[in-house]
Design goal:
Shape: globular
CATH topology: UDP-N-acetylmuramoyl-L-alanine:D-glutamate ligase
Catalytic activity: (6S)-NADHX + ADP = AMP + phosphate + NADH + H(+); (6S)-NADPHX + ADP = AMP + phosphate + NADPH + H(+)
Distance between the termini: 34 Å
EC number: 4.2.1.136
Strand content: 5-15%
Helix content: 40-55%
Radius of gyration: 17 Å
CATH superfamily: Ribokinase
Structural class: alpha/beta
Strand order of the largest sheet: 1-10-9-8-7-6-5-2-3-4
Subunit structure: Homotetramer.
Number of domains: 1
Domain YjeF C-terminal: 7-277
Bound molecules: ligand NAX, adenosine-5'-diphosphate
Binding site for AMP: 188-192, 217
CATH class: Alpha Beta
Oligomer: single chain
């Protein structure tokens, strides 16, 4: 099956310009759940990215016992420490960034998979699904939109193979994941691939090695969640986010920021590129 390349003219119009009488209630609420001990930053990066991609409001549920109650860098975010069960999440939930694989994380993911709301599953949510067949079954049986964002290591866990096997035939791996879990899949890496649930493949050509840096995947998860919350269709949201994420990295590289690029800078760059598209 041919693989089409994701282009800017395809994805830029997916997010409609705002009407003059718009209000924040029109742009959806995103919840991010993750941030276990030592990895609170991963959830903050995802939440900040969702906010800066235009989500109407963003809540972050953190698992760490020493979780902060406010993000002083981004006080618009609403932070919650999750001690017990899943809170009433909003329109879209991104779960897994820095979450860890504790029994608590496993229970939260189990309850999230039951939700009739769009989900973005990243990082440890994917590792938990790979390790627990009951979670994998719940995922396959979901009817609401779901996007998986594995890097090659996580894709290998999900398909019970080696990372090298994933890399040797990435299109086949992306399609197998989409078909196995009945989801949209963004298989990350240099030249990320998006597969729709039916196995239709799209290849991304934006991005560069400067992006091989911590937290870049967390930012991507937050971006996808924000676009879903704003009403972009599932596979389109993944294509838009993957293209824009890479284009934001390319804009930084053109500016001379290659080695040492940070995920926080990439988020600001993505906001700039997105706004440029909207004014054209
Ligand atoms: N500030 C933070 O709190 C951060 C937390 N993070 C969290 O840390 C947890 C562990 O995630 P990691 O991804 O670091 O560790 P993992 O152990 O899941 O994956 C790293 C391994 O996966 C393979 N891999 C990943 N990308 C690959 C590629 N493009 N090509 C080939 N192989 C590849 C490699 O074998 C690599 O060593 C996640 O929950 C994540 O969200 C990270 O996102 C980094 C930042
Ligand atoms: N060489 C590269 N070229 C293009 N994109 C890259 C490159 N290296 C990393 N990326 C992108 O950066 C992100 C890294 O995500 P991930 O591996 O989950 O990192 P983390 O777990 O640290 O957040 C992915 O979206 C990936 O496509």
């Amino acid at each position: 099956m041919p693989i089409s390349t994701i282009t800017q003219p395809q994805v830029a119009p997916l997010l409609k310009p705002r009407t003059t009488d718009s209000h924040k209630g029109m742009f959806g609420s995103v919840w991010v759940i993750g941030g276990g001990s030592g990895m609170v930053g991963a959830a903050l990066l995802a939440g900040r990215a969702a906010l800066k991609m235009g989500a109407g409001c963003v809540h972050i549920g953190l698992l760490a016992s020493d979780a902060p109650s406010v993000d002083f860098v981004q006080p618009e975010l609403m932070l919650h420490r999750i001690e017990q069960g899943l809170p009433a999440v909003g329109d879209v939930l991104a779960i897994g960034c820095g979450m860890g694989v504790s029994a608590h994380a496993q229970r939260l993911l189990h309850d999230a998979l039951w939700l009739d709301a769009p989900l973005v599953l990243d990082a440890d949510a994917l590792n938990l699904i790979a390790a627990h067949t009951d979670l994998a079954t719940l995922l396959r049986e979901r009817t609401a939109a779901t996007v998986l964002t594995p890097h090659p290591g996580e894709a290998a866990h999900l398909l019970a193979c080696r990372t090298a096997d994933i890399q040797s035939d990435r299109p086949a791996a992306a399609r197998r994941l989409a078909e196995k879990f009945r989801c949209t899949v963004a298989l990350k890496g240099a030249t990320s691939l998006v597969s729709s649930e039916d196995g239709t493949l799209y290849q991304n050509t934006t991005g560069n090695p400067g992006m091989s840096a911590p937290g870049m995947g967390d930012v991507l998860a937050g971006m996808i969640a924000a676009f879903l919350a704003q009403g972009v269709a599932t596979t389109d949201a993944a294509k838009l986010a993957v293209y824009l994420h890479g284009a934001a990295g390319d804009a930084l590289a053109e500016f001379g920021v290659k080695l040492g690029m940070t995920a926080s800078e990439l988020t600001d760059s993505a906001r700039h590129v997105l706004n440029q598209w909207q004014t054209k």
